[in-house]
Amino acid sequence: MKKSEKLGPVFWVSTIVIFLLVVLGISFPAGFENVANHAFSFTTYAFGWFYLLSVFLFVGFCLFLAFTRFGRIKLGNDEDQPEYPFFTWIGMLFSCGFGVGLVFWGVAEPMSHFFTPPTGGLEEQSPAAARTAMQYSFFHWGISQWSVFTIVGLAIAYFQFRKKENGLISTTFNPLIGKGEKGYLRKPIDTLAVIATVMGVATSLGMGVLQINGGLHTVFSTPNNNMMQLGIIGVLLILYLTSSVTGLDRGIKYPE
């Protein structure tokens, strides 16, 4: 293996952290859940204002790009043309980026808020609870969420296809931390990005597996247990690997 091909600290640190989290979750599920809930409660209480402000600025920035000359900058060379038709690209975005989350939470979230209002003073299953439930759902799955994905996607695409840099998250911070491997923040940024991505995918996949298992149990009376869920994960893994190794033009584009 060449020196340039050796696995670096980003891989090893993120792998070790993720492995430890998985082991802790399997060994101490109740304690792990309790710690995770406390961490979630703290971050939402202490940084909820920052999240809301950030999303508002993201939406504003996306609108700024859309209606100014900067929105006409191609994410590639000036002479490049789109590789896929518009509706094919939209379909690929939904199937690969929002499929499990949108299908599951598009129904589960408003119904959950309708039966258990997220704010105090609302009567369960009332018209006010229904309106609040839809407001929360639109916030989480509407323009606000799209703006967050758009900012990250635009930043990576701009540096990778316009500036011909690599596709790492840390590269998008070049104007702030400078170029080159000596940037002491570069590897921590990429490590956090890997951990956050894996945890996010694991959450979406887990919710999707529970949804599939629940649907099969309701319709076909199949077992609703861990073994069945492991089987579903195995099938999804095969489908994912098949889609990945065949590339965009076959495994991902064809179903659209």
From TrEMBL:
Keywords: Cell membrane, Membrane, Transmembrane, Transmembrane helix, Transport. The chain crosses the membrane at residues 7-28, 48-67, 87-108, 138-159, 189-210, 230-248. It is found in: Cell membrane. Its main location: membrane. The keyword Cell wall biogenesis/degradation does not apply. It holds the Pfam family BCCT. It is a multi-pass membrane protein. The keyword Membrane applies. It comes from the Bacteria. Coiled coil: none annotated. PANTHER family: HIGH-AFFINITY CHOLINE TRANSPORT PROTEIN, HIGH-AFFINITY CHOLINE TRANSPORT PROTEIN-RELATED. Belongs to the BCCT transporter (TC 2.A.15) family. This is Choline-glycine betaine transporter. It comes from Desmospora profundinema. The lineage of its organism: Bacteria, Bacillati, Bacillota, Bacilli, Bacillales.
